[in-house]
Amino acid sequence: MHHLITGATGFVGGAITLELLSSTNADLTVLVRADKNTDPRRRVHERLDSMAVGYDLHDVRAEIQKRIRVVVGDITHEDITSDLIGPVDQLWHCAASLRYKEKDRDEIELHNVCGTKNVLALARMLDVPVFNYISTAYVAGSMTGEIFERPVESCELANNAYESSKIRSEWLVEQEREKRNIRILRPSIVIGHSRTLYAVNHSGIYGFARRLLRFREQSVESLGNFLEHTRLHLLAEPEIPLNLVPIDMVARNAVAISLSNSNEIYFHLANATPPTVGDAVVELMRLLRYRLPIWVDGSSDFTSVDYTLNAGVDFYGSYLRNGKNFLTEHTQAAIGELSVDFPMNSSSIREYFWSYLTAQPFFNTLRLSPNRTIHTIS
Fold it and tell me: Which helix (H) or strand (E) holds 174?
């Protein structure tokens, strides 16, 4: 068995690569861009080795050197080389731009839409029988309620350029369904490892934490301890699900689906037992010494401070509002019901935020302040 992987140095792609080394005997070829400053093979091996240490996968470290071959290629170029790859049983397209702002749309589409088109062309050249595409559950965009594992029909649902690019990329992949077995895999909000908490990409919920931390820092500079005594209004729905899913669960389920006999195309790599928005935001705000927020669905009572806070976290509105329940029927049918359960309580949510925040200088200044003590997690 031979797997070809793009994006193996990324958060999800790297975890899938390590999972393939851990749970299969397959040989792997990794496609990476050239870098004039570092040797591509060394870059891939060092990156994956660092992830393996972070995920406590020490037995896999030797396999990185033995079973991974590195081929230089750029998915944004139409002429991706295929001469050095050889026969491939499964192709994993994990590489993507995670930018989302409108000003970056050209770059986003180059990597996510054109890149997918080019990788599909490579799959045709290699006559790959199985094509696994890593998308996002948030192609659901502005949809609410139960989100089924099925195609998204319109880019008008997208909240930003990133979501739009992933919808269009899914359409490209879906067109291959008559030529090869395709799997469109949609992770929800990916967090660190379920045991070690380690993460190599601090976007998603970590990005939200970073915005609140930065706002807290700016408020101390301009308003002193104002936020420790004033409740802010937050545009959010505290009772809706916040679908946090550990990176190892995403990788394990993705590989299990790829090796299954399922005839389905769309799969949510999501958590069937997620916490709520309120659960997560409350724990984060407690760590950052905010008063607990006043949950609102409009800005009529906003102060200037409320406006500044909510504008800073506006991108995360698709997480905090318009509740989505990502159904996992296809995933459960393919690999089992228990595969999608990762219950989280207040303590485990706090641990994830703590793991991220303690690497941030201002948070350590804040928590060690004599005005109030934030106790460490035992």
Answer: helix 161-174
Residue with the two structure tokens 């550990």: 246
The DSSP line for 305-350 is HHHHHHHHTGGGHHHHSS-EEE--HHHHHHH-GGGG-----HHHHH
Amino acid identity at 99: R
Q: What is the 3-state secondary structure (H, E, C) of 75-125?
A: CCCCCCCCCCCCCCCEEEECCCCCCCCHHHHHHHHHHHHHHHHHHHHHHHH
DSSP three-state, residue 173: helix
- Residues (pLDDT < 70) of the chain are 370-378
Residue 339 has φ and ψ, to the nearest 5°, of -65, -20
pLDDT value at position 371?
Answer: 58
- C-alpha angle with apex 10: 137 to 203, nearest 5 degrees? 55
pLDDT of residue 305: 94
Q: Are strands 294-296 and 130-134 parallel, antiparallel or unpaired?
A: unpaired
Provide the sign of the torsion angle of the four alpha carbons 185, 191, 193, 194, taken in this order: negative
| pLDDT reported for residue 288 | 94
Give residue 377's pLDDT. 44
Q: Are 183 and 257 in contact (CB under 8 A)?
A: yes
pLDDT at 370: 64
How many whole angstroms separate alpha carbon 313 and alpha carbon 207? 9
- Cβ atoms 374, 367 nearer than 8 A: yes
CA distances from 217 to 9, 146, 180, 221, 294 (A): 32, 38, 52, 7, 20
Q: Tell me, rounded to whole angstroms, the distance of Cα 174 from its chain centroid.
A: 21
3-state secondary structure of 168: helix
Site of tokens 């698709």: 318
